[in-house]
Every structure is written in structure tokens, then in C-alpha cells.
Amino acid sequence: MPLAFDNATAAYSEAERTFDAPQDWTPHGVKTLSLYFYGPTGNTVGQLYLKVNGTKAAYTGPADDLKKGEWVPWTVDLPSLGANLQSVRTLTVGIEGAGASGTLFIDDVQLLP
After folding, report:
1. pLDDT value at position 18?
2. Cα-based angle 29, 30, 33 (whole degrees, multiple of 5)
């Protein structure tokens, strides 16, 4: 998924996936959400984050990963979010920070034990 972001007039840019029916992310010992992102070298940096049902998890790696020019893995410990994982309605990926701009590519979103 390409995510174009330009925070010149807003503090953040987001892409949100809303599920028609609530998703249960607890079966089979699911504990982790994993994804890969790619930011071209021309991006300016901000703070990458995701939200599950509105509960935010910030990317804790280097901000420069948003302009690294290679695929970067990111895993999120779902139980630590404190979100209701038995009724997931939305998954959001965003970049916050005034002046951040560019394009981020998101791929291989997975739920893992």
C-alpha cells in the first residue's frame, strides 16, 4: 500500500482500514502484528505509528528508517497495546510531525503467534 504524506498543513497523515465485520485477532496464540515498510531516500522524517481500534503504537526504531531506501521490518506486541483484540474494527498507519512529507510503502501485514 502506498501512503503519500504531506504534513505541511496538518500534524499527521493516516491511512485507515475499516473492517466491515469486527475481526478477532486472538485465535491461535496471536501476539504480534508484523509489517514491512519502505521509505524512499527523498522522504523527510516524522514519527511512524499504527493504531488498532484507535490505540496507538509508535515505531521505536530510528526516524531515518522512513527514508532508508530499503524494506524495514516492524513488529508490534499486540497485548501491550491494551486494545480489544477480539473485536478489531480499524487498523491505521500514520506519520506525524510538522513538515514530514514523502511516500511510505506498507507490505506483508501479518498476525503472528
Report:
1. 98
2. 165
